[in-house]
Design a protein that fits this description.
InterPro entries: 3KSR/17beta-HSD, NAD(P)-bd_dom_sf, SDR_fam. One of its GO terms (molecular function) is 3-beta-hydroxysteroid 3-dehydrogenase (NADP+) activity. Binds to the short form of prolactin receptor. It is a single chain. The chain has about 325 residues and is an alpha/beta fold. It is built from 14 helices and ten strands. It has helices at about 15-25, 40-50, 65-80, 100-110, 115-120, 135-150, 155, 190-210, 230, 235-250, 260-265, 265-270, 305-315, 315-325; strands spanning about 5-10, 30-35, 55-60, 85-90, 95-100, 125, 165-170, 215-220, 285-290, 295-300. The strands form two sheets. An eight-stranded mixed β-sheet has the order 3-2-1-4-7-8-9-10, with helices on both faces. Strands 5-6 form a two-stranded antiparallel ribbon. Helix 3 (about 65-80) runs parallel beside helix 6 (about 135-150) and helix 6 (about 135-150) runs parallel beside helix 8. The protein is globular, with a radius of gyration of 19 Å. Bound molecules: NADPH dihydro-nicotinamide-adenine-dinucleotide phosphate and ligand LLCNDLXC. The ligand CC(C)=CCC[C@@H](C)[C@H]1CC[C@H]2C3=C(CC[C@]12C)[C@@]1(C)CCC(=O)C[C@@H]1CC3 binds near residues 173, 231, 235 and 243.
């Protein structure tokens, strides 16, 4: 039986590069591109078929930021397929990004410079919107819609005697301090992207606790800094063209500047080759590229604080809330 692979946000950037890599490795898979815009999805399907004419590439209409669309798409998947081997939760948004130029230059001349380039800590904020379901758009798209999709597809993902993998595209920008259990949608703050990505790291661990015994394994990856529609939205395009040589130079000092979607998809692709039982449920898998352009994947354990937060919130919600309140700086 041909394996079924579903990829959200498959029509561009890292998602599209992943599809290309999956088909190049195994032309026998049944690939399903889950996208909100059918025109862009069809263009991606044609591009994939041009390089892999024999492959099976289907389209699925899915706006992951709409509850109704997620229910509809999940229903459609259950009608179309009787198995689901891999589900890549990759679609994501970063609306109205604002780069703090002052903080950027301050960081440039500090000992934190490498961390700043790797994570954008302290220099990037966003202005979120309310979506048609009345939710914060970033939370709904990057996290909640994907979570709902997994829950709706449990009958396919948790079948007896079969293994399936859920793989989230998280980010190095995911940060504990941006996330609060008292405000999981991040209504109050200015870093909804960071918060939503941290929440996906938590949800992945929770899914493992809940479903590993049913053969469902969840992992998170971080693609590094990749030049895609998302990153091009942060600065004017002429500026990116100007600093591009500097970006390639920086790659000599930090392996997190993967830069191309192909490189950024490294950890996503690598995970498809692993036995999920052998993966660390508490690790985040990073796509990295060396100065000489060699791609590799490296696991980074989530912090002890995160592990504590997961354990306490899953077992003793009240104790967890006290922990948040009593620990300064974790609001
Ligand atoms: N680029 C980077 O440096 C990094 C990216 N990431 C993550 O990688 C993932 C892919 O982003 P990237 O390839 O960079 O950027 P792109 O903007 O190229 O890709 C994002 C994809 O998500 C889709 N998408 C957005 N909103 C929805 C929605 N509501 N429903 C369905 N699909 C949607 C987009 O579709 P459409 O074309 O219709 O907009 C697009 O296909 C994201 O989760 C992002 O957060 C993480 C770390 C770094
Ligand atoms: C000279 C030079 C390279 C300037 C670029 C400054 C910033 C625009 C980048 C520095 C760190 C980058 C970064 C991201 C976007 C662009 C930067 C802020 C991300 C936030 C993109 C999306 C992610 O998920 C993580 C990235 C971390 C690093």
């Amino acid at each position: 039986m041909r394996k079924v692979v579903l990829v959200t946000g498959a029509n561009s950037g890292i998602g599209l590069a992943l599809c290309e890599r999956l088909l190049a490795h195994d032309g026998q898979i049944q690939l399903c591109l889950a996208c909100r815009n059918m025109q862009r999805a069809e263009a991606a399907r044609l591009a994939l078929l041009a390089s892999h004419p024999e492959s099976q590439v289907a389209l699925l209409q899915l706006d992951v930021g709409s509850v109704r669309s997620v229910f509809q798409a999940a229903k459609e998947v259950k009608l179309r397929y009787n198995r689901l081997d891999y589900i890549y939760l990759n679609a994501g948004i970063m609306p109205n990004p604002q780069l703090d130029i002052k903080a950027f230059f301050k960081g440039l001349f500090s000992s934190n410079v490498i961390n700043m380039f790797a994570t954008a800590e302290g220099i990037l904020t966003q202005k979120d919107n309310i979506n048609s379901d009345g939710m914060q758009e970033v939370f709904a798209t990057n996290l909640f819609g994907h979570y709902l999709l997994v829950r709706e597809l449990e009958p396919l993902l948790c079948q007896p005697d079969s293994i399936s993998q859920v793989i989230w595209t998280s980010s190095s920008n995911a940060r504990r301090s941006a996330f609060s259990l008292e405000d999981i949608q991040h209504q109050q703050g200015t870093e909804p992207y960071s918060s939503s990505k941290y929440a996906s790291d938590l949800v992945s661990v929770a899914l493992n606790r809940r479903h590993n015994h049913q053969g469902l394994y969840s992992s998170v990856i971080c693609p590094g800094l990749v030049m895609t529609n998302m990153t091009y939205g942060i600065l004017p395009s002429f500026f990116w063209s100007l600093i591009m040589p500097i970006m390639w130079l920086i790659r000599i000092f930090t392996n997190t500047f993967t830069l191309t979607p192909y490189n950024g998809a490294e950890a996503l692709f690598w995970l498809s080759l692993q036995k999920p039982e052998s993966l660390d449920p508490l690790a985040k898998y990073h796509s990295l590229t060396s100065g000489l352009g060699k791609n590799y994947t490296q696991p980074h354990k989530v912090s002890e604080e995160t592990q504590y937060l997961i354990s306490s919130s899953l077992t003793q919600p009240q104790q967890k809330r006290n922990y948040i309140k009593l620990t300064p700086g974790l609001q």
